[in-house]
Amino acid sequence: MSRKKYSVAIRDVIAEEMRSDPSVFVMGEDIGALGGVFGCTRDLQKEFGKNRVRDTPIAEAGYVGTGIGAALTGMRPILDFMYLDFVYVAMDQLLNQAAKLRYMYGGRATLPLVVRGQQGIGRGNAGTHSQSVEAFFTHIPGFKVAMPSTASDAAGLLRTAIRDNNPVMFIEHKALYASSEEVPDDPNFAIPFGKAAVRRQGKDVTIIATSLMVGRALEAAEALSKEGIEAEVIDPRTLLPLDLDTMLKSIEKTGRAVVVHEAHKNNGVGAEIASQIMEAGFKFLDAPVVRLGAKACTLPFSLVLENAVVPGVDDIHEAAKQVCYK
Amino acid sequence: MDIAAYDPLNETPYQILDAQGKVILDHWEQSLSDSELIEAFKNMLFVRQFDTMAISYQRQGRMYTYPPNLGQEALSVASGSVLQKTDWMVPSVREMGAWYMKGVSLKELFLYYRGHEIAQRFEQANRIMPITVPIASQIPHAAGVGYGIKFHGEKAVVLTFIGDGGTSEGDFHEALNFAAVWKVPLITVIQNNHYAISLPVHKQTASKTLAAKSLSYGMPGIRVDGNDYIAMHEVLSGSIDYARQGNGPVLIEALTYRRGAHTTSDDPKKYRTQEEEQEWEPKDPVNRLRSFLVHKNIWNPDEEAELIEGYRKEIDTQFLEAEQYPPHSLDDVFAYMFSELPPELEAQKQEYQDYLNATAQEPQK
Ligand SMILES: Cc1ncc(C[n+]2csc(CCOP(=O)(O)OP(=O)(O)O)c2C)c(N)n1
Ligand SMILES: [Mg+2]
Predict the structure, then answer these.
(1) Which of A173, B220, B288, B323 is the most exposed place for a label (fewest CB within 10 A)?
(2) What are the residue ranges spanned by the domains of chain A?
(3) Do B191 and B233 fall within a single domain?
C-alpha cells in the first residue's frame, strides 16, 4: 500500500496499464508537456513519448471520433476530457457513434474506449465548468459509467475501465483530486464494476451517495449518530452497471432510503435509483424514498452559491431524519 | 501523377475525357490497360443495374428508404478499384460500387436496406466500417483509423467519403485538421453531387471549390471530374501513392451530379429544374466511358443487353436470398450492446421471451 492522492492514483494506473499493454494510449488537450490541467497525466509523455501521450488540437468531437477509429485498428484509447462539461460538443461521437457502433456492426467491432475527466463543483469554475454529466450516459445504452469517490476506488475502477472491451465513461471529481488514502501497489489491483461499497454500517436509514456526496453523507451520518440514528452509507461506485442488490439488502434492514447526488435532482440518476428500489423493494420501505440533488438552476460562479445549490451535509442530515419521521 | 502539384483553387476540374469520351489532354498516356478499363465499365454497368433494381424493390414495398447512386458510379467504382485488401474504407453512403468491390455482398446491402442491422457485419469484407448515418461523423473515425495504421507501422491507407453538404459539418473540419497535423494516410473523397437533399452546393459554401478547404489544413487538394472514370482513377491512384509513402492526407473533390432523388422518399422536382437535370445527362459517367471504349474499338455496345440480363438475374438472386434471410433474432437485439451480455439486459431479454411465449407466438429466431 502507498498513500496517494486521487489524481496520482489515476496517473499511476494509466502509466502501469501503458507499460503492460502497448495498445493503450492517451489523447486529449494539454496532457503532454503540461501533464494535464489537473496533473492526471503528469510525466507520462516523458516515459511513453508523444505518440502514446498525444496532445490533440482543441476538438472534442475530433478526439472522440479519432479514438473510435483508432480502437477499431486494435488500440485502447484513453480520452482525456479536461472538463467533462465539454462532452456536450462531442455528443454525436459519444452517444450516436461510440455507444452504438458495436450494435451497428452486428457485434463485429469491439470498442475499448475510456472517456475520463473531472466534473462538479469545488473551484468556482462557473456554469459551464462545474456540471455533473453522468445522467446522459446512463440514459443512452452503450456506455458503462464509473464514478469513484476515493483514491483507491479511482485506481481499482480505472484499471477495470481500461481493461474493459466497451466504452466506459469514467467520471472523476475535481474536488476529490487532492484527497488521499492508501492505495494497493499491486499492478493488477482492480475493482469490478457493479459492486457497491458499504462505507458505513447502520441499521436505521440507508443513504446512497455518489462521488463528492459520499464524504458529505458520511459526515451527516456522524451527526445523525449523535442523535441516535445509525445511517448505512452506500457508494454504488458504478452507475451502470448498478449494484441494486447491495442497496436492497441494506434497505431490507433499515426500511428507509435517501439518494443523494450532486447532479441536478430533476431527471437525475437518483430518480432511477429510487424507482428501482421501489420496483424491487417496496415491501421493505417504511417511508417514501427521498432524493437530493442540485437545484434546477445553472451552477453559480460564486463558491458560496455553488454550495448553496448542491446538497450539503445539513440537507442530507435533514432528509435522513425525514425518512425516519424524526 | 504528382498530386501535390495541383492547385486546389482551380475551378476547372482535372479531366481526361470530354463528354463524348474523347481524350482532351495533348500528351496523355493511358495508365490502365484495355482489359482494366473494360472491367471498370462492366462494374459501372453492374452498379447501375443494382441501383435501379434497388429502387424498384423499394417501390414494390420490399425495402425501406434507399439513396439512389445514379450518375455517381464512376467515382465509386474507381475508388473500389484502387483499394488493396489491407486498406481501410470508411463509407458515407452513396458509393455502393466501392462497397461492393471492397467485398460487401449484394445480399448484405439489400439486407441492410431491409432493416437488418446484422447486414453491416460484412462477413466477407474486411476493414470497412458501417454507415455512421449522422452526416460527417465518419470522418474523425477515418482519421483515427489512419492514426492506428501509422501507429502499427502498416503500409495501408484509409479512404473515406463525404458529400458536398457534409463539408459544412464541424466533424469534417476537426477530422481533416487532425489528419493533417498527425500526417496520417487518409484520402477523403468529397462527392460533390451538387445537392444536399434540396440545398444546392452554392448555398452550402461560399468557397469557389471544396478542394480549396485543403489549403487551410495544409494538405494537397484537387478538384477532379468525378464522372470521368479515367481522371478519377488517376487522381485516386496518385493520392493513394502520396499517402502510402507517408506524406500525409489528401483531399479530393469529385464533381458529379446526383441524377436521381436524394432518397426514395424525396421529390427533386420541388427544388430543381428539368433543364438542369437534362444538362447533366450527356455528362453521365457510364455513357462517357462507353464512348471512349467504342472509339478505341475495344467494346461492342451490342453485347450489353445480354450482359445486363445476366447481371439482373444475379442481382435478383441475391435479393431473394436477402428476402428469405431469417428475421432478426431476439438475441441479436441484445447481444451486441456490450462485449458480454449484462444481467439487466439478460433480464430484459427474458422478459421479452416470456412475453412471446405467453402470447403463443413462435419465438423469433
Ligand atoms: C448530422 C446530420 N444532420 C442532418 C442529417 C440529414 N441528412 C441526411 S442526408 C443529408 C444531406 C447530405 O448531403 P451531402 O453531404 O451532399 O450528401 P449526398 O446526400 O448528396 O450524397 C442530410 C441533411 C443527417 N443525416 N445527419
Ligand atoms: Mg451532395
Answers:
(1) B323
(2) 2-183, 197-324
(3) yes
Task: Say what percent of chain A tops pLDDT 90.
Answer: 100
Catalytic residues of B: 258, 262, 271
Domain that holds residue B351: 331-361
The CATH T-level fold of domain A197-324 is Rossmann fold (3.40.50)
- Confidence check: pLDDT of B365 > 60: no
Q: Are residues B318 and B351 in the same domain?
A: no
In chain B, how many domains are there?
2
Q: What is the pLDDT of residue B329?
A: 86
| pLDDT tier for residue B328 given thresholds of 50, 70 and 90 | confident
Ligand 1 atom nearest the C-alpha of A92 is 1
Q: What is the pTM of this model?
A: 0.95
Which of B72, B197, B204, B280 should be mutated for ligand 1, with most atoms under 8 A from CB? B197
Query: Are B35 and B121 in the same domain?
Result: yes
Residues B337, A51: C-beta atoms closer than 8 Å: no
> Which chain B residue is nearest to residue A50, measuring alpha carbons?
B182
The cell for A323 is 425518512
Cβ < 5 A residues, ion ligand 2: B 163-164, 193, 195-196
Tens of pLDDT, residue by residue over B287-320, are 999 999 999 999 999 999 999 999 999 999 999 9
Residue B128 has pLDDT above 80, yes or no: yes
Q: In this predicted model, what pLDDT tens digit does every residue of B184-237 receive, in sequence order?
A: 999 999 999 999 999 999 999 999 999 999 999 999 999 999 999 999 999 999
Specify whether B219 is located in the same domain as B268.
yes
Q: Using CB atoms, which residue from A75, A101, A110 is nearest to B151?
A: A75
Pick the CATH number of A2-183 from 3.40.190.10, 3.20.110.10, 3.30.365.10, 3.40.50.970: 3.40.50.970
Mean pLDDT of chain A: 97
B64/B205 same-domain check: yes
pLDDT at residue B364 greater than cutoff 70: no
Binding site membership of B185 for ligand 1 (Cβ less than 6 Å): no
CB A299 within 8 A of CB A121: yes
Interface of B to A at Cβ within 8 Å reads 90, 117-122, 129-134, 137, 139-149, 151-152, 170-171, 174-175, 177-178, 181, 332, 335-339, 342-344
Instruction: For A59, name the nearest residue in chain B, comparing CA atoms only.
Output: B174
